[in-house]
From TrEMBL:
Family annotation (InterPro entries): Clp_protease_adapter_ClpF (IPR053189), Hemimethylated_DNA-bd_dom (IPR011722), Hemimethylated_DNA-bd_sf (IPR036623)
Stretches for region Disordered: 7-27
Family matches, as SUPFAM superfamilies: YccV-like
GO molecular function, one term: DNA binding
Organism classification: Eukaryota, Viridiplantae, Chlorophyta, Pyramimonadophyceae, Pyramimonadales
SMART domains: YccV-like (SM00992)
Protein name as it appears in the record: Hemimethylated DNA-binding domain-containing protein
Species of the source: Pyramimonas obovata
């Protein structure tokens, strides 16, 4: 027999034995999924410890975007801690908070956050067009590259152009064998990215320097080194 705990609005998960996945046996808590639940009402979200932590400045998308992405990373770190201590009830509450976090923002901002709600630092992703895998290093509310870079990469032809979030991605080396040795990251529009937990683990020499691998959840959490990686946020490494 196994003990089941609620991990979402409509599904439960067995914690009594590990599950087999693409990369072998996963931990007892399973893969991290924080897909936003659009059916959760504002009153439900604000119950308990969630509270109204969003300031008036969050009415502006750029501010809301930064707050949302940072808070998701913070909650993810807390979730990892609870799973490692096998405190699964607390972990489930954190997963639910992550699913519903964007509902703590005003409705116009919620709509803008919805598209990339699961994309934040440490999440594994896949390029929709080229198929290569990677892990998110940094999130920008809009494209920060210069006009020449955007022209060469035809950013204007994307459905949402440059006025959409862009993400710095540390890519899986085997997926881009012809990349120049100096190139460590790519810079990708949200239109071209999709969350892919099966992309874990990412093979790149910088992964272990920047992230802590969480095999039980098949994901990564950033460490303090990431704040020192500013040299990678420039055009030459995209």
């Amino acid at each position: 027999a196994c003990t089941r705990v609620q991990v979402g609005p409509s599904n439960s998960q067995c914690l009594g034995r590990p599950r087999a996945g693409r990369h072998g046996t996963r931990g007892r808590f399973g893969r991290l999924s924080v897909r936003a639940n659009a059916d959760v009402g504002e009153a439900q979200v604000r119950e308990g410890s969630a509270g109204n932590w969003v300031e008036e400045a969050s009415l502006e998308f750029h501010t809301a975007f930064d707050k949302y992405k940072a808070k998701m990373v913070q909650l993810k770190k807390q979730l990892v801690g609870e799973v490692r201590l096998e405190r699964y009830n607390a972990a489930n509450k954190l997963k639910e908070r992550m699913r519903t976090l964007m509902h703590e923002f005003p409705e116009p901002v919620q709509r803008d956050l919805q598209n990339g709600g699961e994309l934040f630092v440490g999440q594994t992703v896949r390029h929709k067009q080229y198929g290569y895998r990677g892990v998110v290093l940094k999130c920008d509310a809009t494209c920060k590259a210069d006009d020449q870079w955007m022209l060469l990469r035809r950013v204007s032809t994307l459905p949402r152009g440059a006025e959409q979030p862009f993400y710095h991605i540390l890519f899986h080396k085997a997926d881009r064998p012809n990349a120049q040795p100096a190139v460590q990251t790519t810079y990708i529009a949200e239109d071209l990215l999709e969350l892919d937990p099966l992309a874990f683990p990412i093979e790149h020499e910088l992964v272990t320097q920047i992230f802590t691998e969480v095999a039980d959840l098949e994901t990564y959490v950033p460490n303090d080194t990431l704040d020192t990686m500013k040299d990678y946020w420039h055009e030459g490494l995209y």
